[in-house]
Amino acid sequence: MKKRAALLILLLLAAFGVEAQNGANGKITGKIVDSSTGQPVQYASVSLVLQSENKEVNGITTDEKGAFELTNVPEGTYKLLAFFIGYKTGTWSNIVISKANPKMDLGTIKLASTAAKLKEVTIATDKNTVEYKIDKTVYNVDKDMTSQTGVATDVLKKIPEVEVDVDGNVELQGNADIRFLINGKPSTVFGNNLADVLQSIPASQIQSIEVITSPGAKYDAEGTAGIINIILKKNRAEGIHGNTSLSGGTRLENGSFNLDGRKGNFGAHAYVSGNAQLTSTTINSLNRTGQDTGSTSSQLNQNGTSNFRREGYQTGVGIDWEISSKDNINADFGYNYFSNNSVGITNSATILTGPSGNILSDMSDIINGSSNFHQQTVDGDIAYKRTFNKKDQELNVLLTTSSTNNYSYYMQTQQAMANDSIVSSSYANNPGVSKETDISVDYTQPVTDDILIETGAKTQLQDITSTSNVYLLDPLSDDYSYSNTQSSSLEYKSNIYAGYLSSDFKLFKWLNVKTGIRYEYTNINATYSTSGNVNIQPYGTWVPSVAFSHAFKNNQTLKLTYSRRLQRPGYNSLNPFINAGDPQNITAGNPALQPEIGDKIELGYNKFLDKGGNINLTLFYRDNTHDIQPYTTYYPAYKIGDSTYTNVSLTVPENIGHETNIGLNIFGSIPVKKKFNIRTNLSFYQRYISTGLSTGGNISGFNYRLNMNATYQFSKTLSAEAFANYNSTRINAQGTYPAFFTYNFAIRKQLFNEKASLAITATNPFNYYVSQTTNLSGQNFALLIGRQLPYQSFGFNFTYKFGKLEFKKEKEVEDPNLNPPQDN
User: Distance between CA atoms of 807 and 824, rounded to whole angstroms?
Assistant: First the structure.
């Protein structure tokens, strides 16, 4: 398959030709200064635009002296734009580069300061943190002080409409079925233990995070909640440049190093980063009452502690080669490793009561347990892009491949307190491999100035294998023997073939419309050692989408969208591996899961304020069928192979039936004063769940999330930030997940002419633990789980940048109707 994809790329190159840049040796230089003071404007953005097509072809930032130099400029007529926060944008037209005049010195360029922001930078005062675009939310991480010593999940909790609990589980608009991407591309690294992956990516390695709640037909249909795209740091400025970041603290430690280089039409980058969550002790408690089919009832009480540690590292390299003015190839290769370890001890007491309330038995024992998980992922991709003379006409070909090796292990020993004898003991390992190869071709064709057609096709090939090896203690031989009945294996192949067609156009000259349809055909072959071949019929899914938007006067925009998405069960959900690390609270996967289908309607309003602030309101309605949620069932006796476990809660993912959510998100960025800015993010939604299961019924509840971020700029180089977040109790199909409150403080000092920074952070400085209480109930049982989770931490971060301090932002492929609003 890889050879075929490479051949396809070569054929495309041969078909279109490799066009050399005629006279691509021109040079444009100049110096930008403040018009009133004459002082250099350092690190201002300079953009070179081909005047005939109004298309950006090059860009750079000024150095410490305000100077810039654009090289390898082909012959043509250009205009140059220079802009920086706090200044009016300067524009110079009719700059001609020719063989006769290959060099142009613009001399000293004066920029006038302004108190009000121009439309090009309407959200500039908040652009370093949140950009609320019409089609997506972009969170820029560099200026986020309170997350500097943290990880990806610490950043995600700041983003509008995103919720993160204290364990690192992520929801978007109350839905956990999110399609995660890295640099816009899929990876099998997200297929297992997502929370571990997100908590092992240092925030210092992330450039920005994009959130798309209503993706169009061009995007994969996977993820009923939407898409979250994590963009790692990359710099496109000329020369050698990079940054390094080191963080240390009482709970988290991480570091990263990025190196970028560009000369003319060729660029390369490399990075390495690592993260560790130091060993911490969680206090656990559990109380469960159960009733068997007769009149006997049971009471299980557990109290214990567990020591937990997490670590990981990532590294990668890549190239970007502009073969000609119209042909570009870029390629990336990455390696990721994540792991966690847990060791715990639990005191357990089980009381069985008869019909008249008499105690039938009272047993106490000690459970010693340990678990380990690690995974390593290799990702690679190569992309070819071809542009044409016609504006917006474009061809993109992308090949990505990803392979993840997973390994899980547990061991448990149940020991009676009365006579110190071993009641039961077992251990198991679960190695597995997940592979995915994607090939996609996308083509964009402008029909008129107001009509744009996009079409494309994609093939996604996924292969999952997993083996569960279970060993049980034989009391006669006092040795562990392999269990043929509890051990199992899985082979799972999924081939997805997709195609789409979408169009952008205007109605009545004022209404922007983007509509499209995507079709995905899924063919699955699965074999389980316990049940043989599973008959899964191929299925096709039509995924329509439509978006209407209109920009009003005074920088206001209104948008209405509809989209359909689906969520196929992932590796963790399908894996039949039975984890009996706690023999009375067992978990397993469910290979019989069906895909979840979600329909969503969104109504959004956005207002850009005069002083750079922003207000956004999003009202949404989401309806999911075959909704996938963890479901717990109580068994007085449960048999696994030739072993029978008593007084057991078994939790597996199930298609619980139907779920409806109606919600409102309110985001505001308010510049209170020149140096003081407040961001608020409020989410409210009502959830209705109908399980459709014989052991469950209907449940509904109101959920909300409140957070606020305040930033104060003491001086040009000294700033402080405070962040507070509260999540209410959340319902699921059987009860409620706990509410929680967290808060952070940070102060940062810029050093060495803003090339370096030192930040000091504190998380929950006045509370060592975050208390968690989960209530679940079902047929014949009620369960109360308590945890005291250590969350307090103090840390520091040191970041140093060398070379160019700003990167040239790559042109975003966006819908024409999703640009910043213009006055009518």
Answer: 33
Token pair of 620, please? 């949404």
Burial class (CB in 10 A: 0-12, 13-18, 19+), 4: exposed
Give the Cβ contact number of residue 609 at 10 Å.
19
Separation of alpha carbons 217 and 442, rounded Å:
12
Contacts of 662 (CB under 8 A, 6+ apart): 620, 621, 685, 686
Residue holding tokens 């083509």? 443
CA-nearest of 480, 444, 283 to 811 is 444
Distance CA 471, CA 812 (A): 53
| Residues 601-633: tens digit of each pLDDT | 999 998 877 666 788 899 999 999 988 888 888
Per-residue confidence band for 695, with pLDDT thresholds at 50, 70 and 90: low
Tokens representing 246?
Answer: 């080191």
3-state SS assignment for residue 387: strand
Nearest to 680 by CA among 631, 635, 726: 726
Would you report the helix, strand and coil content of the chain in percent, each value rounded to 5?
5, 65, 30
C-alpha span between 781 and 649 (Å, rounded): 9
Start-to-end CA span in the chain (Å): 51
pLDDT digits over 409-422, tens only? Answer: 999 998 988 777 88
Q: With contact defined as beta carbons under 8 Å apart, do 635 and 650 qualify?
A: yes
Of 435, 451, 71, 95, whose CA–CA distance to 263 is shortest?
71
Apex 504 CA angle, 498 and 508, nearest 5: 145
pTM of the model: 0.77
CA dihedral 108, 112, 113, 117 (to 10 degrees): -120
Strand partners, 80: 48, 92
pLDDT tens-digit readout, 51-63? 877 777 777 878 7
Q: How far apart are alpha carbons 629 and 691 in whole angstroms?
A: 10
With H, G, I as helix, E, B as strand and everything else as coil, classify residue 4: helix
Best CA proximity match to 190, nearest among 410, 308, 338, 398: 338
Q: Can you tell me the distance from the alpha carbon of 672 to that of 710, in angstroms, rounded to the nearest whole number?
A: 10
Nearest to 87 by CA among 34, 149, 142, 162: 34
| Percentage of residues of the chain with pLDDT beyond 70 | 89
- E strand residue ranges, 327-393: 327-353, 359-387
List of E strands, 62-126: 67-73, 76-83, 90-97, 103-111
Q: Name the residue among 374, 482, 490, 367 with its Cα closest to residue 428.
A: 482
Residues 584, 647 contacting (CB under 8 angstroms): yes
